[in-house]
Task: inverse folding
């Protein structure tokens, strides 16, 4: 898997991405791009969300969480990707496809940057 | 089975759905028997917590989707404390589902209302009674002890401590603010790691002793 800070940079370069926050598994901020002053608090939230999502995973006996998406009415979405070193949170601009973005993030995380456009 | 849940289940790609209330648990369900009520309640509880954590990053969030390799879970807050949880095929058209939920919002609200008022619902799963009225906490856990516990937790889980502590503290308080060991047990459960939990228990014990010593 690509290093978390590098993944944050690649993710920010994707069309439709407004801001990026990367958090380690203990909730510390690893990287923040255009995320403003709240980046540290958001990093903790991301880690906590992934932790609770793991409980859902365990309850249902699912194998792997691919992505988590949080949506607010009329606002940008937050897309979370689990990483072996923590998690990556991406704020999507209104109008961009969240599903397509999540798929591209997954490809980026696997280090297949050249396949993002496919 | 309630008609509104059956309608949502009839959307192509939907496997099942249920209504989860923070106080009443699973108040109505239309899910395959494969999904046991206890499991659904566990999923609902974890989703509610995920959503609560997410609201700190994205205020006014209403929907959450968890994409697993085998299943897609979509949850929408119907009203404060009540979630509609939909279990779907991973290839589900989420926009179609979202539209179906939008159309059913009014009925879902009514269903949640009936569930919340403990009216017996067809398809409802028996739940424990709502939590007792919160008791004053100050008498049971002083401010200094609270700070000491939070500091001990921060040494174990880092920056997430304040969020975890707030969640557990509120839940403990809502149940009447029982004895401190109950709160400690809840915090240990949230830490989710036996070794870290034990370290926290040791640190918390020392911190509480010091805090109470200053008072006493």
Result:
């Amino acid at each position: 898997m690509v290093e978390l800070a590098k993944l944050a940079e690649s993710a920010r370069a994707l069309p439709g991405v407004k801001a990026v926050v990367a958090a380690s598994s203990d909730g510390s901020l690893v990287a923040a791009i255009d995320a403003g002053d709240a980046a540290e608090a958001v990093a903790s939230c991301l880690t906590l969300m992934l932790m609770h999502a793991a409980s859902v995973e365990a309850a249902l006996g699912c194998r792997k969480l691919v992505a988590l998406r949080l949506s607010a009415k009329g606002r940008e979405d937050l897309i979370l990707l689990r990483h072996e070193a923590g998690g990556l949170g991406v704020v999507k601009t209104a109008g961009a496809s969240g599903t397509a973005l999540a798929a591209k993030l997954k490809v980026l995380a696997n280090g297949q940057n050249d396949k993002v456009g496919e | 089975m309630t008609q509104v849940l059956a309608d949502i289940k009839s959307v192509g790609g939907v496997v099942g759905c249920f209504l989860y209330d923070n106080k009443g648990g699973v108040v109505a369900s239309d899910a395959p028997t494969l999904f046991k009520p206890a499991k659904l309640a566990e999923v609902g509880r974890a989703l509610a917590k995920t959503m609560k954590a997410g609201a700190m990053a994205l205020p006014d969030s209403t929907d959450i989707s968890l994409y697993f390799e085998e299943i897609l879970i979509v949850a929408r807050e119907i009203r404060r404390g009540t979630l509609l949880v939909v279990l779907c095929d991973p290839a589900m058209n989420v926009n179609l589902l979202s539209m179906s939920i939008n159309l059913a919002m009014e009925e879902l609200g009514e269903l949640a209302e009936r569930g919340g008022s403990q009216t017996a619902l067809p398809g409802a799963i028996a739940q424990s009674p709502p939590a007792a009225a919160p008791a004053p906490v100050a008498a049971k856990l002083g401010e200094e002890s609270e700070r000491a516990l939070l500091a001990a937790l921060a040494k174990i889980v880092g920056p997430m401590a304040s969020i975890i502590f707030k969640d557990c503290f509120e839940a403990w308080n809502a149940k009447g603010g029982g004895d401190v060991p109950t709160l400690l047990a809840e915090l240990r459960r949230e830490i989710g790691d036996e070794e870290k939990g034990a370290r926290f228990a040791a640190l918390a014990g020392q911190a509480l002793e010091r805090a109470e010593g200053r008072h006493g």
In short: The longest helix of chain B spans residues 94-116. Chain B touches chain A through 38 residues (CB under 8 Å).
